[in-house]
Amino acid sequence: MSGSTLEIENLHVEIEGNKILKGVDLTIKGGEFHAIMGPNGTGKSTLASAIMGHPSFEITEGNVYLDGKDVLAMEVDERARAGLFLGMQYPSEISGVTTSDFLRSSINSRREEGDEISLMKFIKEMDQALDYLDIDKNMAQRYLNEGFSGGEKKRNEILQLMLLKPEMAILDEIDSGLDIDALKVVSKGINKLRDDQFGCLIITHYQRLLNYITPDKVHVMMQGRIVKTGGPDLAKRLESEGYDWIKEEQGIEEETTGQEV
Amino acid sequence: MTVDTKVPYDNEYINQFSQANNEPDWMRELRLQALKQADALEPPKPDKTRIDKWNFSHFKHDAVDADKITSLHNVPADIQDVLDLDNVPENVLVQRNHMVAYASLKQELKDKGVIFTDIFSALRDHGELVKRYYMQDAVSFDEHRFTALHAALMNGGVFVYVPKNVQIEEPLQVIFWQEDPETAMFNHVLVVAEENSSMTYVENYASHNDETETVANIVTEVIAHDNAQISFGGVDNFSAGTTTYVNRRGVAYRDARIEWALGQMNDGNTISENVTHLIGENAVSNAKTVSVGRGKQSQNFTAEIVHFGKESEGHILQHGVMRDRSTSIFNGIGKIEHGATKSKAEQESRVLMLSEKARGDANPILLIDEDDVEAGHAASVGRVDPLQLYYLMSRGISRAEAERLIIHGFLAPVVKQLPIESVKNQLTQLIERKVY
């Protein structure tokens, strides 16, 4: 086996008493790229947030394991150090903390004390990644996400992904709000990490991202569950035919979990 | 302890004290007059902070001898921290208790007529000049009991004078080191910039009396004549035993500019007032303060800019972090007097509370007596945002480190403004020590 394995078993998640996820099962192995698609409000982002440990979500049932380790028992920072990464849909803005200082702290958090990355090496790696993602070098000295455009925030998430090199990444609507050029750049960054070790779960509404990043498996989520799984062709069919045929096939009338998320 | 702010010293004591320092007659008379009025005057009433239980009467006043400092490498570590010893500052004065323990000023500046000396030497050597400004244009001795006590008992401080058209690039730095734990510091700082001059002045207050009670009563007057520029940096770091009243007041004439950057890091109860009067047309002041509260201390911070001159501009930025059971009131006041047309007043007060028991209160106040002006304010009091913590932690950063980053980030806009690198670093370290 190469890389890490993320196992999600019968996951149930609530927010303020509302049941959002109603039993999600999914296994992603190192080297695999999975995509979760589905209409709005079906629980896709909740799945991403719950795995990372977002403070607003409550897990009422089920398990998440990374290489057999109980992810749900870990603090958020421990999950990250164990190898998980979440590219967020709405990253926080943090005033007074430069993107560069934040990145360095993040890199050093997974290294031993006394073995921190040297400033030279850090700057070199960061500059390379900035160039690769076609990001203005000034961004490194700007406060983290403060005043960033939607596109800049998404690129910054991918910048972090490239520098932190996690075992397993979840990308939550990393394509939303991006124009076609930005989408290509972001895809280029994600594809660069692709090897037989790195696992990735891509959450998206749109098939267009999957034109640039070919998934190994495509899952469709409705009513807080995965209702269908297929290969890259499934995404293409959803693009041309929409979701109605799946609803029909599954006997689903209302695809959302009963509320907007 | 009940309220007792009566002056524990009499005329005879003041006379002797003044004579022992060879003060000019006017100074002795000012002291005696102030002493006479002190009991009749009320203490100041800081908004929303009760000070009646604070210690204002338990202190020693008698001067304590202190040794000269032969090398800046021989001072305590926390005082060394504010000095850049790899690059020893050329214009620096260290006041140890009430004595000048170390002083240096570049010959080039002396030749240009710059005065940078302790207040007693200034009274002897530049008596008329000091008399012209001492408690005249900025602070009056009879404003309230504390200003009167200050005038009566003044026992230290510095005089800084920059003549017309003299521009000083390098900072003038003063360290007020209260080594004796019992003796009160009635410090007077007088900074005067003549027309078209410019300077950067930085002061650091430090004491080490965690248990022993005493008082600091500090008055600072900063005068910027037409088109003068003063950048004033200060870091207050009195220990928990010291009750502090500090009043820093500026007066800016036509086209003058006063920039304040204050690190309010005392551990004891504190009233800190920073008021600037924009007298002349087009005068500008920026007041940036950063404060940390911890333990059980109570603090009251006022930053106020009063506009008299047309097209004058004032910006106030206060950031404070409160932990433990500390309480702090932040008053940001912009006042535009009638006739100060086209003036601009902005103020922002932000408080971050780190514990359930900490209390912070931000009061932005605009008092405007003129129509044709621009004014705005913003205030917030809150706790560390859990989503910000989540975001930082999701990258592997521990909770403690994430909080540290958020707090630093919160205070950074002010810390960055401090005019001397070593002081900026010291303030950063101080914040680090006080917040964790």
From TrEMBL, chain A:
Keywords: ATP-binding, Nucleotide-binding
Residue ranges constituting the ABC transporter domain according to the UniProt record: 6-248
Keyword Magnesium: no
Alphabetized InterPro entries for the sequence: AAA+_ATPase, ABC_transporter-like_ATP-bd, ABC_transporter-like_CS, FeS-cluster_ATPase_SufC, P-loop_NTPase
PROSITE patterns linked: ABC_TRANSPORTER_1 (PS00211), ABC_TRANSPORTER_2 (PS50893)
NCBIfam families associated with the record: sufC
Family: Belongs to the ABC transporter superfamily. Ycf16 family.
Protein name: Fe-S cluster assembly ATPase SufC
Gene assigned in the entry: sufC
Automatic annotation (TrEMBL), chain B:
Domain SUF system FeS cluster assembly SufBD core: start-end pairs: 178-410
Ranges for domain SUF system FeS cluster assembly SufBD N-terminal: 25-174
One Pfam match: SUFBD_core
Superkingdom of the organism of origin: Bacteria
Classification via PANTHER family: FES CLUSTER ASSEMBLY PROTEIN SUF, UPF0051 PROTEIN ABCI8, CHLOROPLASTIC-RELATED
Family to which this protein belongs: Belongs to the iron-sulfur cluster assembly SufBD family.
Classification via NCBIfam families: sufD (TIGR01981)
Name of the featured protein: Fe-S cluster assembly protein SufD
Gene name linked to the record: sufD
